[in-house]
Design goal:
The protein is α/β, with parallel strands linked by helices. It folds into 2 domains: 113 residues, NAD(P)-binding Rossmann-like Domain (Rossmann fold, 3-Layer(aba) Sandwich), CATH 3.40.50.720; 117 residues, Dihydrodipicolinate Reductase, domain 2. Helices cover 33% and strands 28% of the residues. It has 9 helices and 13 strands. The strands form 3 sheets. A 6-stranded parallel sheet has the order 3-2-1-4-5-6, sandwiched between helices. A 5-stranded mixed sheet has the order 8-9-7-10-11. Helix 1 crosses helix 9, helix 3 runs parallel beside helix 4 and helix 6 runs antiparallel to helix 7. The chain starts with a strand and ends in a 5-residue tail after the last helix. The relative contact order is 0.16.
Length: 262
């Protein structure tokens, strides 16, 4: 049975933990902040909880704790030789952290596995960059209240009635990922699959007509042209967490254990 550890105990971690048995896997370790041990057990059940990865480690770890969790624990896990799945792709916009994690994986003889998260089509982008990839744009669109707590508040009055969609960020994927750490993991995923952080253009939009979080990728190159749009649903009971992001973690775990895989 595959032994799995989780960094974090939030919505994605809880969704993954509930489905592990379906994959023939079991949860054996949870990393939680000091003082949050009881909360982790309440969320995930009777499981070993620690403030850092130590002792006997699982076969694979999953980072569900956001950018800070990956920065704090990622290199240690990788240097210990344990593969690490992460959905915190926006953290890799920090070039120093990305380099540290890559070196840690080399030192440990293992891999940092990037989840596709709330977007699809990344396989096509990875294939397209093997030829000439001329341009990639990512556009993220949410209702105005979906941007509360982000830098969009410095550009738009999100509490005032809006009658039309408004762009509040237009720049490259590195800027987007650093400025919007809670919202731009998708932009980072598109960048890492295609033209990189500086080569990927990003537009973030508050749209009063939006019914959910919509992600759109457009790309062109000698492969042809691509346009992919996903309007995502959130996890039940958690309007800030993409259901597809949680599912992508389960998919990565299934791939890790599979003998035939994409």
């Amino acid at each position: 049975m595959l032994r799995v550890g989780l960094i974090g105990h939030g919505a994605i971690a809880q969704h993954v933990a509930r489905r592990l048995a379906d994959l023939g896997a079991s949860l054996t370790l949870v990393i939680a902040r000091p003082g949050r041990e009881a909360a982790a057990c309440a969320a995930l059940g009777d499981v070993r909880v620690a403030a850092r990865p130590e002792g006997q480690l699982p076969d694979i770890m999953v980072d569900c704790a956001g950018h800070a969790g990956l920065a704090q624990h990622g290199a240690w896990v990788l240097r210990a030789g344990v593969p690490l799945i992460t959905v915190s792709l926006g953290a890799l916009a920090d070039a120093a952290l990305a380099a540290d994690l890559e070196q840690a994986a080399r030192d440990g003889g293992t891999r940092l596995i990037l989840c596709s998260g709330a977007i699809g089509g990344l396989d096509a982008l990875r294939a397209a960059r093997m030829g000439r990839l001329d341009g990639v744009t990512y556009e993220g669109r949410k209702p105005p209240q979906g941007w509360v707590g982000s830098p969009a508040e410095a550009v738009l009055d999100l509490d005032a009635p809006m009658t039309a969609a408004a762009v509040h960020f237009d720049g490259d994927a590195r800027q987007a990922a650093l400025l919007y750490p809670k919202n731009a993991n998708v932009a980072a995923a598109v960048a890492l699959a295609g033209l990189g952080f500086e080569g990927t253009q990003v537009r973030l939009i508050a749209d009063p007509a939006a019914r959910g979080n919509t992600h759109e990728i457009t790309a062109r190159g000698d492969f042809g042209e691509m346009r992919l749009t996903i309007t995502g649903q959130t996890l039940p009971g958690n309007p800030r967490t993409s259901a597809l992001a949680a599912m992508s973690v389960l998919s990565a775990l299934a791939d890790h254990a599979a003998t035939i895989r994409f």
